[in-house]
Amino acid sequence: MATFQMTLDDDLKADVDELFGDLGLDTATAVKMFFKASLARNGIPFAVQHYKMPDDLEEAIRDARLNKNLYGPFDTVEEAIASMLEDD
Fold first, then answer.
1. pLDDT tens digits for 39-75?
2. What's the chain's average pLDDT?
3. Is the pLDDT of residue 36 over 90?
């Protein structure tokens, strides 16, 4: 039996431990599942591709992080989304 070790950011490790725990798995089992699925598919078991975020979404995220161009408060998510989609 071989040992596999990797270094992860503490927050990432905590997040995946919680996620896999919610699924009834420990992280080591989830990693083994990934390896087995990779072998079964003879490659990465999901699509690997570049994701280009739309420019307007990048701008909205940047604005939210800088606390600018914000409107509200809103009573519902739908109202917030409608506000974001409105033309100025």
1. 999 999 998 888 888 998 888 889 888 888 777 788 8
2. 90
3. yes
Give the ranges where 1-88 is alpha helix by DSSP (H): 10-22, 27-41, 55-66, 77-85
The pLDDT score that the predictor gives to residue 29 is 96
Report residue 19 as tokens: 């996620």
- Structural domain spans, the chain: 10-41, 55-85
* Residue the block writes with tokens 């506000």: 83
* Encoded amino acid at 20, one letter: F
Give which of 61, 56, 53, 55 is closest to 86, Cα–Cα: 56
CA 66 to centroid of chain Cα atoms: 21
Buried b (16+ CB within 10 A) or exposed e, 7-26: eeeeeeeeeeeeebeeeeee
Using CA atoms, how far apart are residues 22 and 30, in angstroms rounded to an integer? 12
* Matching residue, tokens 């989830």: 30
